[in-house]
Amino acid sequence: MMVHSSDEDFMRMAIQVARAGVLEGQTPFGACVVHEGKVLSCLHNSVLKDTDITAHAEVLAIREACRARGSIDLSGCVIFSSCEPCPMCFSACHWARIDKIFYGARIEDAEGFGFHELPISNRLMKELGGSQVALVGDLLREESLAVFREWYARPDKKTY
Amino acid sequence: MMVHSSDEDFMRMAIQVARAGVLEGQTPFGACVVHEGKVLSCLHNSVLKDTDITAHAEVLAIREACRARGSIDLSGCVIFSSCEPCPMCFSACHWARIDKIFYGARIEDAEGFGFHELPISNRLMKELGGSQVALVGDLLREESLAVFREWYARPDKKTY
Fold first, then answer.
1. Measuring CA to CA, which residue among B43, B45, B51, B22 is closest to residue B154?
2. What is the pLDDT of residues A66-99, one digit of tens each?
3. Exactly one of B58, B108, B111, B142 is catalytic; which is it?
């Protein structure tokens, strides 16, 4: 599987925005939507700040990318997520017709840190749903896990 | 399975708000979140109006219910959706810890009307994910399908 150095750069942006979220008391998840090398959106999870259980990084990044493109069709875009999208976020990527999902940590990693995940992998969602989205996992997984550990060390951390 | 007449009343509210959405040029989906007989939110899909592919009725209703309760935990709440939640919306219900999902039409019905669904049923999502959410399907399915037909008859209809 081909991973370009720019893919790592975009993933580092997603991981850095996750880290920025942790510093603000949020959970360790970030995502960027990119179209032809241009970043359309880069946001961290804000479930706690917004009192909105749907405010996952990928949902927010897709919403902002729709606004940026003036379209609900994000064909030609890719998403970089610091963690494997949960089934909600995977399905949002499918609806948006995103071409490819890159992810760092895995759903099982998030589950291991105490998040109430539906443990259904993106590969299984894609297979069962017959989705065309391409998947590239484990991209800078260790760098993403480092942010989980920074979050975990905080005395004020909250899961959901 | 026990269905109370009040369950039908709440489902009719979801179907009616879906119909209101169709009259405004939106797609035929509505959802209400209810807590101990009190409606916290009742909204139709606004993907087209908002240029937001994530603006499904259930996501919007869950978001508004979180605001109404001042909490990301909707334990004790039930959701009435005019159509079986897609995997994005099912997963949002799981994250919100909603007790029970009532739905009218089925994912396969929406798919039959041209929506780009991931054809993964709520029952399969629940089983694979080990979710505790209870499911009651086919509640006023025919009344919900009537709104799909009203939408389908419109010359300006759009799917996604």
1. B22
2. 999 999 999 999 999 999 999 999 999 999 999 9
3. B58
- Please say whether the beta carbons of B94 and A91 come within 8 A: no
Give the closest-approach CA distance of A116 to chain B in angstroms: 7
Q: Please tell me the distance from the alpha carbon of residue A134 to that of residue A102, in angstroms, as a whole number.
A: 9
Tell me whether residue B64 is one of the annotated catalytic residues.
no
- What positions of A carry a catalytic annotation? 58
Low-confidence ranges of chain B (pLDDT < 70): 1-3
pLDDT value of residue B2: 59
Phi-psi region of A67 (alpha: psi -120 to 50; beta: other; left: phi over 0): alpha
Tens of pLDDT, residue by residue over A96-138, are 999 999 999 999 999 999 999 999 999 999 999 999 999 999 9
Instruction: Return mean pLDDT, chain B.
Output: 97
| A87 closest CB neighbour out of B53, B70, B91 | B91
Report pTM: 0.97
Name every chain B residue with its beta carbon within 8 A of the beta carbon of A53: 62-63, 66, 72-74, 92, 95-96
Q: Are B147 and B22 in contact (CB under 8 A)?
A: yes
Cβ <8 Å between B118 and A124:
no
Cβ-nearest to A118 among B73, B94, B118:
B94
Question: Computed from CA positions of residues A91, A92, A95, A99, in that sequence, does the dihedral angle turn out positive or negative?
Answer: negative
Please compute Rg for chain A using Cα positions.
14
Two structure tokens written together for A76: 């030609």
Residue B27 and residue A80: Cα distance in Å, rounded? Answer: 29
Between A and B, how many CB-CB pairs are < 8 A?
Answer: 117
CA distance A111 to B133: 18
